[in-house]
Amino acid sequence: MKRYHNHTAVDDVSFDIPKGSIFGLLGPNGAGKTSLIRIITSITAADEGQVLLDGEVLNSYHPSQIGYLPEERGLYKKMKVGEHLLYLAQLKGLSYKDAKSKIQHWMNKFEIQDWWDKKIEELSKGMQQKIQFIATVLHEPKLIILDEPFTGLDPVNTNLIKEEIHELNRNGCSIIFSTHRMEQVEEICTDIILINQGQKVIEGRVDKIKESNKENLYVIEFDGKLPENIDRSHFEIVEDTNKKLVIKIKDGHDSNEFLLALINSGIHIKAYQEILPSLNEIFINIVENSNHE
Amino acid sequence: MNKLWLIVQREYLTRVTKKTFILTTLLTPLGILVFTLVAGLIFSYDTDKTQKIAIVDSSQLLNENFESAHNVTYEFSNKDLDTLKAMTLRKEYDGVLYIPSLDSLNSKRHQIFYYSDDKLSLETSMNIRDKVKARIKDYKIVKMGIDPSKLDNLKISVSLDPEPISDNVEDTSSMSTVVGSILGGVMGYLMFFIILFYGMMVLKSVMEEKTNRIVEIIISSVKPFQLMLGKIIGIGGVGFTQIAIWCILVPLMLIPAQLIFGIDTSSIPTEGLDPEQLQQQMNDAAGFGYNDIMSELKSQNWLMIIPLFIFYFLGGYFIYTSLFAAVGSAIGDDINESNALMMPIMMPIILAVYIMFRVVALPQSNLAIWSSIFPLTSPIIMPARLAAGVPVWQLLASMACLILSCVFFIWLSGRIYRVGILMYGKKASFKELAKWIFYKSN
Q1: Which of A203, B75, B101, B213 could anchor a disulfide with A72, C-beta 3.0 to 4.6 Å?
Q2: Which CATH entry fits the domain spanning B51-148: 3.40.50.2300, 3.40.190.10, 3.30.390.10, 3.40.50.360?
């Protein structure tokens, strides 16, 4: 729990980040995401509660195992790219030699070898962001925390960073990904937690959350007309456009029953698919509901 | 410890290798040199026009004895005033000085007149007044029948030499008091500028890091306290480097100045006063000469003064820069907002300078003793007292207070700093800062 003097930013939020997952930390603006991250990175202390990393209470050794890319991020403008990265890497506990070879590795990877002697202020915002990303992952942390890592990046660089995130994850790195861009969460994250007004609203695997929030909607595409003789008691039609039907299966009924009935009626079915809610919809629903309470 | 060292290194190296640092470090002594030369030239500047002034002295008050000054020549004339006025209008003279006869030997005021359409310069008019005064005095002495040699005996100069009674007290001359207070004043003033200058540097740097938002990246690796301390130490190192270079460069600059321009730069502190005149005044005042000052300066216990000066520099530097860092962390990008918070920090510094002026004159007063023990003023006051000699117990008390409050203020500022650097868009008041001190820390 984190309290500031007249409001509680994070209130009794407790959750597990599965090892090796890409964990989405979601919430509307001002929900307490940054406060939560600052506690995990030991930038601030929780007034109550604790953070365990690999079963250990957070200690002074842990910052070197965490890589943090804050949402509001800057660099020393007057420093050169190379020495800046060296500085940040050494602050994380790397030796000079080690840091240097790792920086070169990453610069090669991002094809920016010739940036070493460039001053930070000569770089564009997106270019600086690449440097910041390198600084975050350079010391091979076990846990990487990325707060809105894609803002200001063009599609090419967004993809580049996305791939790196997946690669780091494949190599056993756990990643906390904080954003309110839901399509990115859906694409990248395996697990999420949603917090609102300092409290946990929902937590779990992305597919499970979608499953549990689904409304049993199905879309069917077929030729011809819906036969009259089909039993309409276990579904209702939500939307009926030409050759496309969205139905809601009523509770206690199986979607296959409807499909079987359709097949038996001799109609030509082109597609039959369950509509899962997008995280975006779930997010908006939950946040609005909880704000109304 | 290792991380602190990294921060110190970065703070130091990025500044020392900056072009502006190299330029200011090298150019400041040059600037001082140029400034003193120009100031010297200005003070020795004389009117470039030579003036010719006619004197009408019908009653022979001046006894035909009136030396010409460097740019003014005086000429006694027997012509009457109106002729001379006409000649002045024809530019044959620049002016006419009319000395009326004395009414009575007892009159203490005497009015003389100067006729010209041009204004008389202040310097010339003072010069004329002084000379006429002296001549009239001579005239009166003769007329009153007083023996000039007897009168000369009435001019007395007294010199006071303080002598210790106990054997274990060092015998100091009164000269050492004068030199001590001047030296003290210079050191106190120097300290004031150093603290202010590098304090502002720390403040600016903290604000920059906060607005830059680099700070969150850094403190996810190191403790905010380490960052603050590293910055303060690093900039302190910059200060030491800069001052050390100046200490070497400034005397080096003065050598060619003396050689090439032949201007005696030792007269700098007296603002272009003629050194001979200064020596004269010194002789008159205390019966000591210019060389006495130099020998007095050399006889100062520099082996004690310099380390103590460095000690107080460090103490003052750490106390004030940590406070500046705390203020910098609280205000962020708006320098205007800082004024309210800066005031209480600036107050003791400025107050200390004022106290220093009194302390230099009264080094043994209670004001001197307590202000040189109080840690917020001692860094400025104590160096100012050193040359005049400070009792050991006061020195020890002052140093102990300084060390303790140094630790206290660094701790206090650290508490404010760690919260301040992460606070955005919050107007920082003292109430707010006080709350920050008690926030839970890691």
Answers
A1: B213
A2: 3.40.190.10
